[in-house]
């Protein structure tokens, strides 16, 4: 790679704001480097600053860096952060995206003909394989068999070896192992006949092409000399094979991960590549990140105590950096219906207290648990969205909307209004003024509403229809879904990598967490880590609950998860049930006050009303302002001018459009409300934790300065 070259650049800004351990990561510019990073400790910040420091100090050229992530969204975030650090040109991709790019490029040269087509889902081809064997599988069976095939391919097990390998690994196939073998074999035969590749085959073929064609390996290795791999605890044997092939014996590699967040071993992932990294690379610089910037000390304490009992040699005790918050709440309910209603009521209370609904999540062990929560939130009038099914831009309604909007953009006239045109297109495929009840119809409506809100937001920054479509295409490429205003309902696995102000961990019973089919000590420990992941998703509010019976009136035979033993302090609160005069919820007073009188319970979140004329506000921009667009505004014009000047400077520094910092409507709302605290600022729709952390201090400084000037006058 060449010797270290000190360039005439100021590197202090790259290291500014890093804590000592993060700075150690950034300054460890040559590999091998292993970063053990606990939840919420700023690992993405550390590795992006490391890459920027290495590039700007001349250690490596940006084009020679390959940063590998596990999601397209994470890769997009990495690229955005690097651009803000003045380091564009770094390749940040998933394993599959990087491999597919290389395979497609070299295919005509070394194999000939057109490259194979990529299948996004195994299910259609697997269904055809089943029919060829006169075996019709329902959708649930297809998903389960597809998961078995993915595990086999990730661990480099062929069809003929599946049955023996599955038995050795302690797996329980969804159908007899011999049938899985036949389906797997037929699937692979059809895939080859139809000139198709799935995600695992992409990795396999890329490694094979490099191994068999030295000139290809040499060219790729000349291009990429500097590797960073995030979430290294989730690497499987096939990904490790490809990574080793890319490296070709070199060791300029930085891996980042947390063995305590290993929750995907059922897919073939293994933490041993992370934990054994210093053994594999004896000269490794090993750095631990333990300062938790995400969660309050109360949340961090509970997370640490969950892992205190874990059977692992790689414990890391997190050290909270945030101010104190409320203690976690533990609540027991009579049945799942009462639990869901209680969670919905508690979420409504948080929303009324100022927590945005998009900053609340309900997490559960399996997706099947979502139904009762969908019903409870629908009855309570609280918007929600399901996460963990299709990715946003892969949903059928979103694909259809983007196609129609693209067509509208091609035929649009210069004076066409973005908001009205977008609403017209979206209304034609199902967007209505009011949301439907629940289920798939509600999910479709939420997707279309998110697109409509994004159009309104961009329009306030001056975007037209072509610019809106271009923004959608950029976000689709980076899997940067628009913000959806609603409580998130998700499985614990789908929640990994995300965070919210308030988290409800629901259904935390033995048999569900740990799941009933977790039998070996290793499987039980992975379930414990899953609870740890759920706890560490919460920034401030954490509520843990369980139900003693499945249905109202059912036998109350369940018990709280064994992982909670000794962690709850005093006895958990009892949620009221119909037998005790309530309908489920927090507390044990049966819905009555301290003197026995019936307490009014409000279960529907209040609509947003204009603070001037009291009219109900429907448009997103009006809800953000808190008034009708036609009602008079009372604000400090000097403050608005100062905010606009600051926004222009911030956008220029970050090399982004001004509306990415804050839209005009958001600035107007800030000027009208003149917030003086973080809580006041976050009460403005559109300002979440990320915006607060990035711009809150500067905005509040301007607002306080304006307030002082007013007092002086």
TrEMBL record:
Residues 568-602 are annotated as: Disordered. This is DNA 3'-5' helicase. It catalyses: Couples ATP hydrolysis with the unwinding of duplex DNA by translocating in the 3'-5' direction; ATP + H2O = ADP + phosphate + H(+). Belongs to the helicase family. UvrD subfamily. It is an enzyme of class 5 (isomerase). Residues 633-713 form the HRDC domain. Residues 16-296 form the UvrD-like helicase ATP-binding domain. ATP binds at residues 37-44. The keyword Membrane does not apply. Residues 589-602 have a biased composition (Basic and acidic residues). One of its GO terms (molecular function) is helicase activity. Residues 569-579 have a biased composition (Low complexity). The keyword Isomerase applies. InterPro entries: DExx_box_DNA_helicase_dom_sf (IPR013986), DNA_helicase_UvrD-like_C (IPR014017), DNA_helicase_UvrD/REP (IPR000212), HRDC-like_sf (IPR010997), HRDC_dom (IPR002121), HRDC_dom_sf (IPR044876), P-loop_NTPase (IPR027417), UvrD-like_ATP-bd (IPR014016). Pfam families: HRDC (PF00570), UvrD-helicase (PF00580), UvrD_C (PF13361). Keywords: ATP-binding, Helicase, Hydrolase, Isomerase, Nucleotide-binding. Residues 297-622 form the UvrD-like helicase C-terminal domain. It comes from the Bacteria. SMART domains: HRDC (SM00341). PANTHER family: ATP-DEPENDENT DNA HELICASE UVRD2, UVRD / RECB / PCRA DNA HELICASE FAMILY MEMBER. Its EC number is 5.6.2.4.
